[in-house]
Amino acid sequence: MNIHYTIKFWGRKDPTIFEQIINGGKKIVDPFCGAGTSGYVSGLKGCSALLSDINPVSIFISGNLLNKTYLDEKTVKNLERELNEIQKRCYSVDSGILQEAVYMTYYRCPNCGELVSPMNRENGKLVCNCSKRFAQREAREAVDRVREVVLQDWNGGLRKTNPKEYTEDILINSWYPKRKFEYERNKAFKNLPNFGKRVDQIFFPRGLKAAAETYELIESIDDEKTKDFLKLIFIASLYSATKMIPYSATSGPSWKIPRYWTPPVKVERNFIQTFIRRLRYLNKMKKAWSELVKDYEIFVDYFGNVETGNDKYLSIVRSDARDFEPPEVYDVAVMDPPHYGEILYFEMTYLWQCWLYGKKRDKRFRDFRFWKKEIDVNLKLRRDLSYYNEELAKVVGKYMDYSKKIFLILHNSIGYQFKTTLKLLKEKWDVEVKTVELKVPTSAQGIHGRKKRHLYLLEIKN
């Protein structure tokens, strides 16, 4: 049972780090809960925990990973039957089912209009035969061409088929989101996709159809807990319907870097098969988890209302860390805030929030303006390092009144940022700094090949 394999979430830490922090504590509070790792470890250790986060998607992920919902085998088999029908409608190709298709993207020169191969590059720029050098975003258009198609025959065998026979004339009748990648009107994301201005434009046509029909199937279910559990699986599988999976002979398919980047050589995967595998894995994990926390009360609230149990509990509440008022004093406060400007969580969870908000406009996810209150470094939004340090210090100061110990986890790829944060904290409190070695690969190890070997763990005392 490993929470890391449930859903991709940038910056999630090795559970052993939280085990070291908790170290005998009975009640834990975490105002930057992310995907709920601190609550997961609290359950393993028999502790109670109060988790909060400003991001509604974080509350959704944490709540559905840590609650006791799982599906019986009959329900799983019925779902698989319906999902296989969607698969036939979306991925049937030339008497087989699509397993993967490899694409190469060509870019139309803004000067002469010719298509330029992504391999024709000098110093990061595309180079056309007309001598024009240009960035991908400067191209008139991007044209995807299929290079290889792998099918599964009806008897289960794999074979390659002629890419010329692979067509993409796909009709989508089900709902899907079409929101632009922007904070608000005319304020685009800091990290825009290299192609596509809307959410739907980063999907392959077959993947978008499969995702839209699967979403429609989930929405038709009456039981709300089952529906939310399946939506968790849905967003965890969603990357496999997009153009964001780079072609690689040495690594598995995944969302590789923390932005909506579509590589020039990419792989189309079978979303339905990804969903079914994720369904099996998560359901098995949740069944074991529900037995482990059978004596716990579990509360989830998206509107700032706190509930705690009389004995053991896990309470997950949406709230700004600066405004939240815990109902009691906790043994340990653990804080794992955003990574300066490395990962912009509003942007990174936006794709999921658009689907979760959905056709019916689920009120839990209607707040698309919480980016205004995030604690991070984002010069596009005029949030610099001073802002980050001052706001983080406010949270630390607040939780001095609600916890016996405070542990702050920090990591980044630019050393001076950490030094300025540490200097400010030391001016206010007694701070002990430890380094924690990273024993397992996580997205906290850096991006774009810059691997981190350790994190900084700060114990802060009055």
Structure explained in plain terms:
By secondary structure, the chain is of the alpha/beta class. Among the domains are: 1-68 and 293-306 and 318-337, Rossmann fold (3-Layer(aba) Sandwich), CATH 3.40.50.150; 73-100 and 151-283, no CATH class. Helix content is 30%, strand content 22%. The protein has 10 helices and 19 strands. An 8-stranded mixed sheet has the order 14-15-2-1-16-17-19-18, sandwiched between helices. Helix 2 (37-45) links the parallel strand 1 and strand 2. Helix 1 (15-22) packs across helix 2 (37-45), helix 5 runs antiparallel to helix 6 and helix 9 packs parallel to helix 10 (415-428). Residues 442-449 have low confidence and may be disordered.
Describe what is shown at a glance.
By secondary structure, the protein is α/β, with parallel strands linked by helices. It has helices at 15-22, 37-45, 56-66, 73-91, 205-219, 224-237, 271-292, 345-357, 385-399, 415-428, and strands spanning 27-30, 48-53, 92-93, 96-108, 115-116, 121-122, 125-127, 133-134, 142-153, 158-161, 182-184, 187-188, 265-269, 297-301, 313-318, 330-335, 403-410, 430-437, 454-461. Among the domains are: 1-68 and 293-306 and 318-337, Vaccinia Virus protein VP39 (Rossmann fold), CATH 3.40.50; 73-100 and 151-283, no CATH class.
